[in-house]
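Risk mitigation, structural track. In case the binding assays with S-adenosylmethionine fail to produce interpretable data, a predicted complex structure has been prepared as a fallback.
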Amino acid sequence: MPEKPDFAERYASGNTPWDSGTPSEELLRVLKAGKLTGSTLLDFGCGTGTNAIELARRGFRVTATDIVPQAIQIARDKARGVVTQVDFRVADTLRDDPGGPYDILFDRGVYHCLRTEDLKAFQEFLKRATRTGSWWLSLAGNSKEDTEPGPPVVSEKEIRDELEPLFDIVELREFRFATNKSDFRPLGWSILMRRK
Ligand SMILES: C[S@@+](CC[C@H](N)C(=O)[O-])C[C@H]1O[C@@H](n2cnc3c(N)ncnc32)[C@H](O)[C@@H]1O
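Fallback model:
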């Protein structure tokens, strides 16, 4: 099992390759296809808020959480003067009340971390944060290409075993993550789901 990353230390030292500074192309593709319907949205593990801000700019009522106070502070600073309606909060997805239920959940690079930390607590979070019909778009590392260093990875079988008890998988496709290095684009899964 990969070592649990110390995210506070990584933000403090600037070792955050996932923080591309631009909204996720895969998220934009799904939005363009009109798949994410509803208004309230939770971006859990939002990091420095690039996607949360873009989603708020597009009219979603966004709550965005991260366990690292420094990331939330950067996100709040970035949102100032751009959007007012993002509710940025420091919160632990595995332990704190997520609020909701939300129409939509979004995560980029968080399911693939929390599934190995405490899958039961993560599944409890999913139950509380959604209701029947809620959407969830998860962007996760893909085990077909386990690059080191790279994101934690997950297989299609693991996705189906862990998430299908609660969600219908509407679309499962491969894509490449953008990072803050133009020549580093790890393979990912784009998992679009609807709560049963
Ligand atoms: C790979 S980063 C992705 C950040 C952001 N989603 C993005 O795309 O830039 C994973 C994020 O999850 C956050 N995180 C890890 N464990 C968490 C937890 N238990 N609760 C909330 N956030 C967590 C980390 O602090 C980090 O910002």
